[in-house]
Write a structure and sequence with these properties.
- There is one protein chain.
- The termini are far apart.
- By secondary structure, this protein is α+β, with helices and mostly antiparallel strands.
- The chain has helices at residues 2-7, 10-64, 82-92, 119-133; strands at residues 99-104, 109-118, 135-144, 150-159.
């Protein structure tokens, strides 16, 4: 290759050298810079999605309003099984079909899994549980789905927030 290059005219050598430099710059752009830009763009998209979810949470919070829950518990709420409360309240709020798992965690806590549930309804349901039964979400993992307004979520509910 070196012999071939040296046999070229000086003008052709310059042309080949410039072409090689341009090819090297193109490789650097394709292999190094472009993936960084793509990753940054994906990060910006995720941030935009999270901001949209946050604004939706704020709209729901405004609609529900402040939740005091003090002194408003349903009669006998302390004696009712969490499984029974969850079963009854999910049926009343149209969430029963989205509840895929409920697992008691002792006598004062329960773990739940909802799939493809309407986000607004889940949030309203949580507010209802707090005001009527004194149940609070002590842990929540909420993921968006491909369908707008729908979420998959894992919740842990506890009596008195503990």
């Amino acid at each position: 290759m070196k012999e071939w290059f040296q046999k070229l005219d000086p003008r052709e050598q310059l042309l080949v050298s410039v072409a090689a430099m341009l090819a090297g710059i193109a490789l650097i752009i394709i292999l190094a810079i472009r993936p960084i830009v793509n990753t940054t763009n994906k990060g910006h998209e995720r941030v935009a999605d999270k901001r949209e979810l946050l604004s939706e949470l704020e709209r729901v919070a405004e609609r529900i309003g402040p939740q005091s829950g003090a002194g408003q518990l349903s009669p006998g709420a302390d004696n009712q099984s969490l499984v029974v409360i969850v079963d009854r309240s999910t049926r009343n709020n149209g969430l029963a079909m989205y509840l895929k798992r409920n697992q008691p965690d002792g006598t004062s806590s329960i773990r739940l899994r909802f799939e493809n549930a309407p986000f607004d309804v889940v949030i309203e349901w949580l507010g209802d549980l707090k005001s009527r039964y004194g149940l609070m979400a002590t842990a929540a993992n909420i993921d968006t789905t491909s369908t707008k307004g729908r979420v998959n979520c894992n919740l842990t509910l506890s009596r008195g927030g503990g």
